[in-house]
Amino acid sequence: MRFPSLPNLLRTLHTVSNTTGAFFRSTPAYTFGRTIYSTLPRAILYRSMPFFGGFLSSSRRMPDNTTYPVQKPEGEWQAQLSPEQFRVLRQKGTEFAHTGKYDKHYPTEGVYTCGGCEAPLYKANHKFDSGCGWPAFWDAVPDAVTQKADSDGSRTEILCSNCGGHLGHIFKGERFGNPKNERHCVNSISINFSPKDEESK
Ligand SMILES: [Zn+2]
To answer: Could you tell me which InterPro entries the record lists for this protein (predicted)?
Structure first.
């Protein structure tokens, strides 16, 4: 198989990134992973994925003028976080599907906190199995998560309201049967889990 030229690859990736939202809206979540794997030649997918994440993050890296309570120079974040946490939380990257440590994690109690500032973001009972390959939550701790339209308007980004760390994206109207008809699609690397939920005790 001929490997596609760089412009063709870019075009393919751009199309994929722009249709991801539509995929989620129109495709039952459990088939999403299979669909994308079967519609892209595997070699292209594997070779392009690290680049894909970089491409997505660089195309969406817009200045965020929101003032968050926790403010740090990027150099300080870089020193505090692992390289992968920094790439996702501060540079709006995306981890590989089905690889995050909380993808198949279903505790009965506890709280998921921000990987950057430890603010409580999601309760254990907000989590559900969407089959999409990333942790999914149908609701968040009140006011803990901020929504912001991506620069191209195709998706809605979710960020920690305390430090502005990138969590993932939110998708609505997918009919998973949860009370809010929403799915917070969160990178595992953006969050930590504490079995003790201090707030509700
Ligand atoms: Zn945070």
So the answer is: Met_Sox_Rdtase_MsrB (IPR028427), Met_Sox_Rdtase_MsrB_dom (IPR002579), Mss4-like_sf (IPR011057)
Helix H or strand E encompassing 84: helix 83-85
Q: What's 6-200's CATH class?
A: mainly beta
Distance 139 CA to ligand 1 centre (A): 17
pTM exceeds 0.85? no
- Cα of 45 vs centre of ligand 1, distance in Å, is 31
| Catalytic positions | 185
Task: Compute mean pLDDT per 10 residues along the chain, 201 residues long, and list them.
Answer: 49 44 43 39 37 39 76 97 98 97 96 98 97 97 96 93 98 94 98 81 45
Tokens 């892209």 -> residue: 40
C-alpha torsion 61→116→94→66, nearest 10 = -30
Spatial CA neighbour of 170 closest among 111, 126, 200: 126
